[in-house]
Amino acid sequence: MRAIQVTQFGGPEVLVPTELEPPVAGPGQLLVEVGAAGVNFADTHRTDGSYRGGVTLPFVPGVEIVGRTETGRRILSPILETGGGYAEYAVAPANRAVDVPDQVSDGQALALLIQGLTAWHVLRNSARLRAGESVLVNAAAGGVGTIAVQLAKQFGAGLVIATASTAAKRELALELGADVAVDNNPDGYADRIREVTDGVDVVLDSTGGSTMLAGLECLKGFGRLVNYGNASREGRPSIDPSALAQRNLSVAGFWLVPAMDEPGGYVEPLTELLQLTAAGKLRPLVGAEYPLEDARRSHEDLLARRTTGKLVLKP
């Protein structure tokens, strides 16, 4: 089968097309003919060797797939333990396979699996958003951000502020339901937010570094910041609990992998997201689609911030 294999850690250049034997499904697994594989920012960390928990060489990247089982089911599944999504065939855990409604495209389904579940959890469980509260979404034109903006409105947020790096990306956030969109440059960040509101209840941040710290400045009393990434690749900032106490602030970290094993942490929210999409109430943003052999280009575009929405590889 055609696949992308990584034999040494590095940048996008290590994503090499190759021919491999198809995987064999073991107990509790399904063999899936991959219709599409999702491309995630975390894939770039796996490829360069910086991913939390480590990755063993050689490996086939890709941890989310949509495709057909041998019985014809159209399923969506994470393959976090085995990887191997950047290929024509992959094996998926049977207990993670969720059927995809006909009204939901491959790209939309993939956008919901990691980005959608992340947005759902950071709003529901980490930030514990209450109706009427204000939400500031950093990187609002990204995979998680575009869904978080929409879900915040679905969950009753009173004000949704989006930040993004370009005018086009800010316009996109407004189209998706944000009330206000501002430049995410850390210089002057807090001042731009204060022009809109005197403080926000929740900040969702996947950028880390100086942008995360700027977001912390924007919280009102008892505000909550949830960090779920370090896309800036800056050093992780230290946060003084005594400084947080001066305004009763909370900072939480989120990682999807353990959340999926919590009771009600996977099938139920994913089913809700698929149903919202099938009903036209949620619009997962599908970005560029690449042939499998162009996996390198997909990572280059992602790292260069040239993309919006969900990136998809098509075997």
TrEMBL record:
Q: Which domain of life is it from?
A: Bacteria
Keyword Acetylation among UniProt keywords: no
**What stretches pass through the bilayer?**
none
Tell me, what is one Gene Ontology molecular-function annotation carried by this entry?
quinone reductase (NADPH) activity
Keywords for the protein's UniProt record, in alphabetical order: NADP, Oxidoreductase
Q: Tell me the Pfam families matching this sequence.
A: ADH_N (PF08240), ADH_zinc_N (PF00107)
- Name a GO CC annotation attached to this entry: cytosol
Q: Where is the Enoyl reductase (ER) domain?
A: 10-313
Protein name, UniProt field: NADPH:quinone oxidoreductase family protein
